[in-house]
Write a structure and sequence with these properties.
Layout (H helix, E strand, L loop, with lengths): L1 H23 L8 H46 L4 H34 L10 H47 L5
Helix pairs in contact: 1-2, 1-4, 2-3, 2-4, 3-4
């Protein structure tokens, strides 16, 4: 899962970087046809990549839900005790705050981006500056959080391997794998 997640996280973060780059090059004259086209491209790219990036975080969480259920059932079936499950829960809850932070940042950044649009009916004088600062924060937060998620997925993978090794040992001792 670590390789799959690393690829997905790289694509999500690359998408956010592309959105940032598209926003960076938007000109200053909101009445210009070229600037309007740049804004439309930036907006469309954000509408595509923000849900994709949210999906990447959701895949990480879903992975923990699935492996958590498997660890729980395996530990019950083989009477392995609560330690494996407790460690899995600890790992799962380690990623939730960062994931929620990224979701919130992406939504708030988009909202301030909408307020930055000269054609928007909701305007705020400092919206462009806030949108820019939030865009940088969102990009950096997603890079950090996906790295933490990747590391945590790796640790959970090792936990799953440890459960499997314990199950194999027990099955060998009972003569079930002959």
């Amino acid at each position: 899962m670590t390789r799959i997640f690393a690829t997905l996280a790289a694509l999500g973060n690359l998408g956010l970087a592309i959105i940032f780059g598209l926003g960076w090059v938007i000109g200053d004259n909101p009445l210009s046809v070229e600037v309007r086209a740049q804004m439309a491209t930036h907006f469309r790219a954000a509408l595509i990549m923000i849900p994709v990036t949210m999906l990447v975080h959701s895949i990480a969480f879903t992975y923990f839900m699935g492996t958590g259920r498997w660890i729980e059932e395996t530990c019950e079936a083989y009477k392995l005790g609560p330690d494996f499950r407790a460690r899995n829960i600890q790992l799962k809850y380690r990623i939730i705050p960062g994931m929620m932070l990224c979701f919130g940042l992406m939504l708030i950044t988009g909202a301030f981006g909408a307020m930055s649009d000269p054609a928007s009916s909701t305007r705020m004088d400092s919206a462009k500056t806030i949108h820019f600062a939030l865009a940088i924060t969102t990009l950096l937060a997603n890079l950090l959080v996906t790295w933490i998620e990747w590391r945590t997925i790796d640790q959970n993978g090792r936990l799953v391997d440890a459960v499997m090794e314990e199950v194999r040992r027990m099955r060998r001792e009972r003569g079930l794998d002959n």
